[in-house]
UniProtKB/TrEMBL annotation:
Cofactor(s) demanded: a divalent metal cation
Family: Belongs to the peptidase M42 family.
Transmembrane segments: none
UniProt xrefs under Gene3D superfamilies: Peptidase M42, domain 2, Zn peptidases
Molecular function as annotated in GO: aminopeptidase activity; cellulase activity; metal ion binding
Residue numbers binding Zn(2+) 1: 68, 177, 230
Source species of the chain: Halorubrum trapanicum
Cofactor note: Binds 2 divalent metal cations per subunit.
Residue positions of the active site: 207
Identification of the protein by name: Endoglucanase
SUPFAM superfamilies given in the database record: Aminopeptidase/glucanase lid domain, Zn-dependent exopeptidases
Domain of life: Archaea
E.C. no: 3.2.1.4
Amino acid sequence: MPREFDFEFDLLRELTEARGVPGYEDDVREVVRREFAESVDRVRSDAMGNVVGTIEGDSDYSVAVAAHMDEIGFMVRHVTDEGFVQVDPLGGFDARVLRAQRVTVHGDEDLTGVIGSVPPHTLTEEQQEKDDEVKDVFIDLGRDAETVAELVGVGDLVTLDQTTTRMGDRITGKALDDRICLFAILESARRIEDPNVTVHFAATVQEEVGLRGAQALGVDIDPDLAVALDVTVANDVPQVGDAADAVTELGEGTAVKLKDSSVITSPKVHSRLTEVAEAEGIDHQHEVLPAGGTDTAGFQNTAGAKPVGAISIPTRYLHTVTETADGGDVEATIDLLTAFLESETGDHDYTL
């Protein structure tokens, strides 16, 4: 029988099922503001839509903790004379997973649509050999061309449809990247009381299109230390035969990031994260991600030579609507982030 989670699953489901593509994170932002209102000392937003909830500490030393609100999606680029919708991607899609998916087109009203897939036995040999590309996607809204033209236009947004559900002790759905980490920072903000340092919990925008929100935010809040939370690859599946390519494993705990393609985390920061995990008996693993970037790099690129660290939640099937994480890994992530922040005094020397 599945066990009880030590966190509020209904809030996690609300966050992951909300819609919010890069630059249009409004629905997620509303949830974040609501949750911050009960747990932090002050909340503010900036011109890009980043939301920062601050808990004031006993010193001027400050730590930024970031997780992004946006999910991959699309923007309408054309409506054909026949009423089919063509799109431009907002974020990195593997077009192979888009066949036969259900979507919502956010036009004058929300419209359910499907990405059609031509039956394989009617494909020509040339069509069978052609690689899938997002530019070749056509969304069928089940309405006549005149109705579609009235309701949908260039610039309207499109999101993939999926609910979030439990699968044993695992959680599966869309937008776990990165709402499951956004959930972790909201949960940590609720648990922390009277920190020694000021903590800025940041819900960032536009990560999926180039870490843009974090880059602007790094300048605005100018932290002494930054820690980002994001999902990471868990290729612990039969299709990936080499264990070295798994990166992380579900159920083995939270992941302390050592590197990805955008950042090499500060050695003294990831060492202290590891020490805290060991001292607190928190299950953890180390992450070396060969490809993919996170908000961690945004702080180091724009806010100067800041020490940075990152905590990741291992997740299977990234950038699909069946992203899957382990409930125990989520608990470990919340526990490590909270313990790390509560033990931060501002006296640790992270310089090299």
